[in-house]
Amino acid sequence: MRRGAEVSPDFSVVDQATGLAGMVGALMTFALIVAVMMLIVSALLWAIGSATGNYQGAARGRTGVLVALLGAICAGGALAWANFLLDTGDSL
Fold it and tell me: What is the pTM of this model?
C-alpha cells in the first residue's frame, strides 16, 4: 500500500501553499499559533484576576484557558483526520 502525503504544521509558509496537504499544513500552523497565544494570554488574565480578587476576571481567564486547550485538541484531531482522508483517497 502506497503511503500518501503527510500533513504537518508548516512553519515555512512564506510563499503560496501548493496542493491540499500544503494548504492544510498552513491552516494548522495558524490554528496552533493562535491556540498557544490564547492560552498564554488567558493564563495571565486568570493569574492576575485571582491575585487581585477579581472573581469575574479569573473566571473568564479560566474559561479562555479551557477554550484554548480545546482548540489545540481539535487542531490535533484535524491533523489526524486530514492524514486519514489523504491516505484513504490515495488507496481508492
Answer: 0.68
